[in-house]
Amino acid sequence: MPLTLYGSVARGSFRRYATYRAAILAGAFTNTVFGFILSYTYLALWHARPDLGGYDATGAVTYIWISQALIAPVCVWGGGFQDDFQDRVRNGDIAIDLYRPVDLQSWWLATDLGRAALQLVTRGVLPMVAGAAVFRLRLPHDGRVWAAFLVSVMLAVAVSFAFRYLVSLTGFWLMDSDGVRSLAGILGMFFSGKLLPITLFPGALGALARVLPWSAMVQIPCDVLLQQRTGGALATGLGFQAFWALVLLAAGRAVQGLATRRVVVQGG
Amino acid sequence: MALIEVDNVSRTFTVRSRKGRLRREKRQVNAVDGLTFQVAEGECVGYVGPNGAGKSTTVKMLTGILVPSGGRLRVAGVDPSRDRVRLAHRIGVVFGQRTTLWWDLPLRDSYEMARRIYRIPAGRFRANLDRCLELLDLGPLMDTPVRQLSLGQRMRGDIAAALLHDPQVLYLDEPTIGLDVVSRNRVRQFLREVNTERGTTVLLTTHDLTDIEQLCSRVMVIDHGRVVYDGGLEGLHAVGESERTLVVDLAEPCPPIAVEGARVVRVDGPRQWLAFPAARSAAPVVAAVAAGYPLVDLSVREPAIEDVISRMYAGEVAAPVRVG
């Protein structure tokens, strides 16, 4: 299947999400407000415990704003293509998608990457600008760090997509995958480093969180931009993300095979 | 060689139902059972049956998204479930109640996407699109987001999207549902053209029998997963023991008319309705009424195909399977 097809699917998805302007602004506003709340909380925490988790106060506040910027593009606690996909499974529209000579997973991955790109330049940039206007943030001047960050974000979206795809595929058996999705959302919020940097997690919990796929979604991209990961650690981080993306995509492909072969497509 | 071959195909679903608090019962349901038919290249076949008869199951098996539990199935020489993606290049599917168009983007984008999905050569794409736009009157809507289209416009948009890659077979499921008379006629006219001019084989599933009367020379009636009638539309009347109705207006209210070969089915003041077999001439009945009663006016009503089929569904007609 030619890349140009999925490229245009991604572009179409980008433009499609661009039509929801009010939703974008409302979302960016919410992310900004919570960015302020979390920043003051972190400042208080780091005032009491300086250098917690290996970050100084400025680093911790910067971490907040990077992670706020990643919420929408990476869909840490679910969303993105899932809303459309689950609707189509539930009401049987997914059948029409199967009538066409396209690969289901690649199609939805393309739409999700297009969505993520749009949300990165809108819901990613706007809160970051607002945060930088009020707080002192430590953002790199080196273009190469930003380039590495963009690669890391793309891999984060890929890992997140692959995981959400698996979650939503359960809809073929459960008819309604919202329950699984809620559970996945909570795990994602906790283990991605969105709630607190994973580096703060104690002992075995921290060790576990570092090897689970969720850390690829927030913790690693944040550390790349904060230059906590450079050189060999940067390569290891990106490799870790790529590893989980491939493993989860392969798992999604296997489950998709079962789902479309064995399970009744809903609706007449 | 037949383009679609369905030979003794069955499909079973397992249905789980609750029995009491914890017990669950598994039950096998035959959605399709011993289904056999063939469709030749270029035919336009109506596929009708009550809800739950197995129509959608059949279409899903023919398109390869559902695997038959038994029997043999071939479309254009290909086993659909085994070669679903390859076959998808050669079929078009339109569901009246679903859409393949991009909801938030202009119609143009969906067609551009179809060009890439089916890898349609530029020249052929241009020619097919121009033709669809003209015949379905879509030209002025190309830059309108799909969500802003009316149902009729969206439906026409979907039909065009299904035909840009010159499919050999077109599956239509209720293509005129919810459309007004003008849109219905336009859609039917277009489909007739696609079938006769291009030779596209059409399998049309619908509850609107006018669609079938206007488009199909052959109709298959399916009930309980089996073909209960397969043949011409006219044949349905003979098989269905249809009756024509003679409506007579008399000068004054009279007791029910008693004439040979007809029976009164309704009396309303001076107007009476007489039923007689569809295959018989109306002339002797009219003559007998005119001779014995003060006849003012009369009209003859042809049997509705709906009635025949609904009686078939209800099992009142023991329809023999006629493979035409």
Question: Which key features would you list for this structure?
Answer:
heterodimer; A: 268 residues; mainly alpha; 12 helices; globular; disordered C terminus; B: 324 residues; alpha/beta; Rossmann fold; 6-stranded mixed sheet; 4-stranded antiparallel sheet; 10 helices
Commentary on this structure:
The complex is a heterodimer of chains A (268) and B (324). Chain A has 268 residues and is an all-alpha fold. Chain A has one domain (3-262). Chain A is built from 12 helices and no strands. In chain A, helix 1 (3-18) packs across helix 6 and helix 7 packs parallel to helix 12 (231-262). With 324 residues, chain B is α/β, with parallel strands linked by helices. Among the domains of chain B are: 2-90 and 167-237, P-loop containing nucleotide triphosphate hydrolases (Rossmann fold); 243-302. Helices cover 31% and strands 31% of the residues of chain B. Chain B has helices at residues 55-62, 84-88, 107-117, 122-135, 151-163, 181-198, 209-215, 233-239, 283-292, 305-313, and strands at residues 2-19, 23-40, 44-48, 70-75, 91-95, 169-173, 201-205, 218-223, 226-231, 243-250, 263-268, 271-277, 295-301. In chain B, the strands form 3 sheets. In chain B, strands 5-6-7-3-8-9 form a 6-stranded mixed β-sheet, sandwiched between helices. In chain B, strand 8 (218-223) and strand 9 (226-231) form a beta hairpin. Chain B starts with a strand and ends in an 11-residue tail after the last helix. At the A-B interface, helix 1 and helix 5 of A face helix 1, helix 2, strand 5 and helix 3 of B.
SS elements, strand count of chain B: 13
Q: Quote the distance from N terminus to C terminus of chain A.
A: 30 Å
Tally of strands of chain A: 0
| Biggest chain pair interface | A-B, 23 and 32 residues
Largest sheet of chain B: 6 strands, mixed
Describe the global form of chain A.
globular
Biggest sheet of chain A, in brief? none
Q: Looking at the structure, what is the overall shape of chain B?
A: globular
Distance between the termini of chain B: 15 Å
